[in-house]
Amino acid sequence: MRQLKFLLIKEFQQILRNKLLVRLIIAVPIVQLVILPFAANYEIQNIKLSVVDNDHSEYSRKLINKFTSTNYFLLNGYFYSYKEAIHQLEKDNAELIIEIPKNFEKDLIRENETKIFITANAINGQTAGLSVSYSNSIIRDFNNDIRIEWLQPARINSLPTIEVTSSNWFNPKMNYKYFIVPGLMVLLVTLVGFLLTTINIVKEKEDGTIEQLNVSPLKKYQFILGKLIPFWIIGLVVLTIAQIVSFVLYGIYPVGSYLTIYLFAAIYLVALLGFGLFVSTLAETQQQAMFIAYFFMMIFILLGGLFAPIENMPNWAQFLTRLNPVSYFIEAIRMIILKGSGIKELATHFGIIILFAIIFNTLAVYSYHKTN
Amino acid sequence: MKQLISFIQKEFYHILRDKRSLLILLGLPIVQLLLFGFAITTEVRNAKIVIFDNSKDLVTQQIISKIQHNKYFILDKTINHPNQIEDAFKEGKIRLAIIFQNNFQNDLLHNNKAQIQIIADATDPNQATTLINYISSIINDFQQDLYNQNKIPYTIKTEFRMLYNPQLKGAYSSVPGVMGMILLLISAMMTSISIVRERETGTMEVLLVSPMKPWFVVLSKVIPYFVISIINVITILLLSVFVLGMPIKGSILLLAFSTLLYIFCALSLGVLISTIADTQQAAMIISIIGLMLPVVMLSGYAFPIANMPELLQIISNVVPAKWYIIIVKSIMLKGLGFSDVFDELIILTFMTLVFLLISIKRFKVRL
Amino acid sequence: MTTPAEKDIVIKVENLTKRFGDFTAVNQISFEVNKGEIFGFLGANGAGKTTAMKMLIGILNPTSGKANVAGFDIYNQPEQIKRNIGYMSQKFSLYEDLTIAENINFFGGIYGLNDDEIKFKSEELLTKLNFHAIKNNLVSSLPLGWKQKLAFSLAIFHSPKIVFLDEPTSGVDPITRRQFWDLIYEASHNGITVFVTTHYMDEAEYCNRISIMVDGEIKALDSPKELKNNFQIDSIDDIFYLLARKAKRIE
């Protein structure tokens, strides 16, 4: 125990002396939490709309008005031909084209049926899908308005109607930031903790100081603990900064308890840092360690459900996410912050993350050789 | 010239010796593409839902069977009472609950009005919106069938055309992004680290007192990463076309030319970073904070630039990857030609020149 | 227990061998080191000195052979060995980003010294090296010679039975080397056995006994005086040159 104390003192002296590092540890989470929620915005609004109105009727104008009066769409301009409008799509000046055919109004009233053509730039499938479903519901509303206008009230009522009411729990204002910010907290804690630990042991290798430790009576577990605890504390500091920033800036605080968040984070960090130390014991140079770290970080984040929901993935990918500690923390922190889940609801998550912590740290102790 | 070749050889030995890094350099784009192509999708699948049918009549059975046969949803049968919805949400067991009112069929046929309540877990607002839309449209279809028995007038039919990506594949937007990111990672980050490493270990001095011209030293560091970048571009394109089924609608030659220009731009950025950073660690930090984050966040790779606040949109203009990603999308997916990407090419050329000029200025001071 | 004659032997090596693949770095070396002596381990670069030393201090596993250090077997008791030895590596290995005082505290601590011992001994060390005024300076700011002296003092800080020094004076000026050897003598005088590798032949003269390693094998082992007698050559430098010339391994 006494040896461990000295190892910890030394690690902190080194970390605190590195001014650049300290500044990064404090500044990176703040800057990221200020910028990212604005950049990482999948809230669909202001979709740029080009209109080709070949009818110039009252109804065609009304329909366009219906589109532009929502927050979802922003008029980019009227064009005389579809070809011109397509050019707007090519130049990324517009995402969606509405083409209203000649005799739109006449056909609707006289023939009882008319058509509209909508073309979407679908390179980004998600935004295209959402903008199409918004247009659909706008057109459906418009259609209903027309029917009400033309049909006798009696006839409308004689049609059986299923009324669908929907309510959105846990995030009634459908604020995308509530979804993304808790995920970003996990991202930050993971990024800072993992990168720093991964480089750490390799740096001692490159500097040759590790040899001096290897010939000392220091035990393997003491060494690993001495490396783990400082970054564990830093991880929790980063988490705290992130909590403060998201409360001050976005008014986000957990419906559940901070205690549950910190308890989970504490165990999660042990697992994550154990993995970082494992990588660090294997790497030969700092450059290599950075690279391996970058590789795993990328996979962890892509398969962590930060942006794309895990349930949408095919089975093999879902299986991979079950091997990814990051996915459990992202899930858990969203459940705690947005839904107020407690330890009882998170029992499985806790169990698995404890298992990860044990496995990774055993690996780290095992792969660190005092002897070649 | 002979000296230059032997120097380049030496750099290749360095890179080939470190098998792990090389494996990651060449494997990273493959893994990333496969994940984006096959795993990461925002298309809803297997969403777990629960249905409470308080009426249990013919109509509700029909609607439920329609929902059940939809591939998007999986019905949870373990939850028996609406009281349990909140707990099920909290445990993450379900995403959506549908509740039919009592006497559904009776109300619908005699009062012409019946109610369905949908409760969504809106933790992920987009997912929730999409799910509610799906359910609504299933119910809407059912209603249309009811109407059809007594035909409804004044109908607007909408025809949708999904341009460039009719199947709404996720890979279409991620492949150009992966190209922009990988090339920058290898060209800028690796180059800068390897130049700084040479300076840090003191071998740079040895090289500089040799009869080699300083620029040859830098050139010999840059060329191997140039080669690796090209190998990566080829792998990415082969995978995109043959595994992910993406088209290259425009001219391959133009795509190749633009890619070379972008690699060149990234390499000069790498040289510039190496003139700023003192240590490998500093070079890494500058590369990751200064390059990777802006690229991932502001290039349009992960998030649509159009959704961002104005200030971020303005900042995004200085990110070279943004322009390259536009070029790749234009050529590969939209099939546009030289004149359509001319502006972007000019911007990239200009950026390259600026990076080179600053590095030359700093290079002389430093060495 | 050990017989009286063996009692004073602190390092006993028999047929110790280390192979890396096809390459035999250390080939069946055998020797003994007595308590309190300064044992010089000479050889050209690549002769296998550092490899042999790393096996003795328990950070490299031998391929075959036996060795006993400070009374402990290198195979089964490496941790006990580590408690009883000090080591100063070729690559300078104090923490450059810590101050002198912080380094002293750290190394004292991980060798399990208690607070009073650390306090007392670090006072003694700072006085001896005349480092009191600069104890809060970063190690990275010291000249190389000072760093070496500090590194040596820390290697013997926990009063080990044996101290292993791997080319401790490479790259320092002659005056500092002289001062460094004064520290070695002092340690030896206090009963610490010194095992030192070097390729400076003038330093060999300071040792009680030296061994000369060529191509992984020990080609000569005796006191400097006896060696000169045996070879009929009056400088160690020339003896070394004679032996090393036959080397097939060239760095």
Structure commentary:
The complex is a heterotrimer of chains A (372), B (367) and C (251). Chain A has 15 helices and 5 strands. Chain A has 372 residues and is an alpha/beta fold. A 4-stranded mixed beta sheet of chain A has the order 2-1-3-4, sandwiched between helices. In chain A, α1 (2-17) crosses α10. Chain A is elongated. Chain B folds into 2 domains: 13-40 and 168-366, no CATH class; 47-148, abc type-2 transporter like fold (3-Layer(aba) Sandwich), CATH 3.40.1710.10. Chain B has helices spanning 2-17, 19-39, 58-68, 85-90, 104-111, 125-148, 171-200, 203-209, 214-243, 252-276, 280-298, 310-315, 320-333, 338-366, and strands spanning 47-53, 73-75, 96-100, 113-121, 155-163. In chain B, strands 2-1-3-4 form a 4-stranded mixed beta sheet. The radius of gyration of chain B is 28 Å and the shape is elongated. Chain C has 251 residues and is of the alpha/beta class. Chain C has a domain at 38-43 and 80-244: 3-Layer(aba) Sandwich (Rossmann fold), CATH 3.40.50.300. Chain C has helices at 4-7, 49-56, 78-84, 100-110, 115-129, 144-155, 174-189, 201-204, 224-231, 236-244; strands at 9-20, 23-34, 38-43, 64-69, 72-73, 85-88, 162-166, 193-198, 209-214, 217-222. In chain C, strands 6-7-8-3-9-10 form a 6-stranded mixed beta sheet, with helices on both faces. In chain C, α6 packs parallel to α7. Chain C is globular, with a radius of gyration of 18 Å. Chain C: GO terms for molecular function: ATP binding; ATP hydrolysis activity. Chain C: InterPro entries: AAA+_ATPase (IPR003593), ABC_transporter-like_ATP-bd (IPR003439), P-loop_NTPase (IPR027417). Chain C: It comes from Stygiobacter electus. Chain C: This is ABC transporter ATP-binding protein. Chain C: Residues 11-240 form the ABC transporter domain.
Features of the shown structure:
heterotrimer, B: 367 residues, alpha/beta, abc type-2 transporter like fold, 2 domains, four-stranded mixed β-sheet, 67% helix, 9% strand, elongated, C: 251 residues, Rossmann fold, six-stranded mixed β-sheet, 37% helix, disordered N terminus
